[in-house]
Amino acid sequence: MRNEQTGNNDIKRNVWKNLVIQKFSHPFALFFLLITSLAVSFLTYKLEFIGVGAVLALTIGLPIVFAITVYPEFGICALIIAAFFISYVSEFLPDQVPIGTLMDVTTYLLILGFFIKQRTERNWTYFKNPISYMILVWLAYNMLEFVNPSAESRLAWIYTVRTVGFIMLMYYVFVYQIRTVRFIKTLLKLWIFLDILAGISAFQQENIGFFPFEHKYLYADPLRVSLLFINGHMRKFGIFSDPVTFSYNMVIGALLCVVLLMGDVPLKRKVTLGCIAGFFLYVMLYSGTRAAYVLVPGALSMLAVLNFNRRVLTFTLIAGALLGILIVMPTSNPLIKRFQTAFNPSDDPSYNVRAENQKKIKPFILSHPIGGGLGSVGVWGRKFSPNSMLAKFPPDSGYVRVSVEMGWVGLLLFCTLFFVVLKTGINFYFSIKNPELKNYCLAMLLILFAFNIGNFPQQALVQYPSNILFYLAISILVVCKRIDDQEQEQLKKNNNTGAILI
């Protein structure tokens, strides 16, 4: 046996040696290596940091591009990881680096992989459900906004549809490519792990301080500092672009852990998930985002309704009692004080300002059924149509933004989309037989319900990774139902076969 292994090693060594000698001793190969080394040196010298990035993109990026296109499970995980870290990475990169195109390219590659796989495994039955139809209607309406006669700029539509329209297509990619319970578990573990990293980052910012590159990014824009520095305390945002995105992701991470620990898992894992959920809710306070504080009791009330039993009722009552004590108790802690104001919006000056802004924009919404055009407010509105009225309007609420940009018709479609998703998801939850899939379905329902509530006081679905996770949660609802139907069909076939044999 030893002689056989030695012989195999000698053969491999000789083959490798002959391959290297034959290939790299050829004049053309040497010339190619020389030109490549000179090109790398020239790019690094001329473009400095960007040149190094270009070289790395070619040597590392090409295999990743291939893997994302050909191996969809890897591509989906890569998309989620990139969505979590894109804002964090952009903080220490030069402004000239188009980091946003990374998400665009990943999205396009996944779509390309979807159509390539459809050539050999054509199956459109995955999308025969009300959710898929409604998302298609919403996507079509977003596309039609390009010809909105009230739009001040077509370029604003082009830049906005990248993070709004094309992200919707990820729903269809997720539904088609997520096919096993094992992969759903992998995605949920990855989701929780990335949220843990985000929470650790915020904990570091609060208790240790900002890293030098974070400090530089923060103070590079005086407006950013003025928005984040409130009552002598700097709001924390972890690895995300802003405190709102951070706090919402901590809340949905906590909800995910709470529902998972209610499943059939070992006690040790229940304790671990409970501790992680507590950590998420604790670091969420560092964000100072009052809107996020309301999401927890709102989602827990949904949990109590959907999964009504003695254990859930007891948990909900205890959580409600603790929340009530936290709301009314006297305190000098600025974080808890800000938490308490979330449940007294009439005493909140910022809430009153938002209500006044919404009152002022109401006549415009009523007189423009299809709105002022996608991208007419916010960053792209200020960039491409700075002199327009809408460019100066602070939308704050996600629903208000839809109303302004896409009109009351768009708002009606958007609310219908949420209704269809939640109604269909609830029907799926009560019809699924597999307890594990039922648990995952419940977790996604709570997350989507939290996004629904959170989109009223803030824009919950416009930033990475929230926009990706929103459509991922919807797709997991559909996939859980599909897998359960397949299992029930297989079980029925097995029973029929057994009956025939008997």
Automatic annotation (TrEMBL):
| UniProt KW keywords | Ligase, Membrane, Transmembrane, Transmembrane helix
How does the record say this protein sits in the membrane?
Multi-pass membrane protein
Q: Which GO terms describe its molecular function?
A: ligase activity
> For the O-antigen ligase-related domain, which residue ranges apply?
279-415
Instruction: Please list every transmembrane segment annotated in the UniProt record, as residue ranges.
Output: 20-43, 49-67, 74-90, 96-115, 127-144, 156-174, 186-203, 246-267, 279-306, 312-329, 364-381, 408-430, 437-456, 462-480
Q: GO cellular component terms?
A: membrane
Q: Which InterPro entries match?
A: O-antigen_ligase-rel_domated, WaaL-like
- Whether Transmembrane helix counts among this entry's keywords is yes
Compartments annotated for it: namely: Membrane
Question: Do you know which PANTHER family this protein is assigned to?
Answer: LIPOPOLYSACCHARIDE BIOSYNTHESIS PROTEIN PA4999-RELATED, TEICHURONIC ACID BIOSYNTHESIS PROTEIN TUAE
Q: Please identify the protein, giving its name as recorded.
A: O-Antigen ligase
Q: Which organism is it from?
A: Mucilaginibacter gossypiicola
